[in-house]
Amino acid sequence: MTQDFPSSVLFCCDHNAIRSPMAEGLMKKFYGHSAYVQSVGVHNDLEIDGFAIAVCAEMGVELESHRSRSFDEMEQWGDDLSGFDLIIALSPASLRRAQELTRHFHVEVEHWQILDPSGIGNTREAKLDAYRQTRDMLVKRMQDRFGPPTETDDA
């Protein structure tokens, strides 16, 4: 591993509909149960994005059952942000929210600049290309940060 491997990771973005669910699914696929992994958004006003589901399915990552949730809902459901070792913010708004919510805790917060593919491309293929670019950025950052995948399958 390139840095200490956290026991729990929270990915966050704006709506918990594209980047953070993709990151959550990829992390679970690559590192299995090495860490407790969740994702959250500043808002939860969108359902999981169909293009995110499609490009993750290409890598054997299933996102259909993902339910978007916000930081506020997370707190209401009793998930304590201070219980996470590492929070990875995938958007400027989620970075601000994570820093605001963790200012009294010792939680490491990182910001990964990951492309928001929503609104890019006019055709299905162009949109899929943008989402693949986002997925591949996440894969690269994840492997740079946590090392090569520890879970292997022949899917």
Notable traits:
alpha/beta, 5 helices, 4 strands
User: Strand-residue fraction?
Assistant: 5-15%
Instruction: Report Rg.
Output: 15 Å
Low-confidence stretches: none
Helix content: 25-40%
**Main pleated-sheet profile:** 4 strands, parallel
Oligomeric state of shown chains: single chain
Number of helices: 5
Give me the secondary-structure topology.
Layout: E1 8-13, H1 19-31, E2 36-41, H2 50-57, H3 71-76, E3 86-89, H4 92-101, E4 108-111, H5 124-146
Parallel strand pairs: 1-2, 1-3, 3-4
Helix pairs in contact: 1-5, 2-5
Notes on the structure:
This protein is α/β, with parallel strands linked by helices and 155 residues long. It has 5 helices and 4 strands, in the order βαβααβαβα. It has a 4-stranded parallel β-sheet with strand order 2-1-3-4, sandwiched between helices. β3, α4 (92-101) and β4 (108-111) form a beta-alpha-beta unit. The protein is globular, with a radius of gyration of 15 Å.
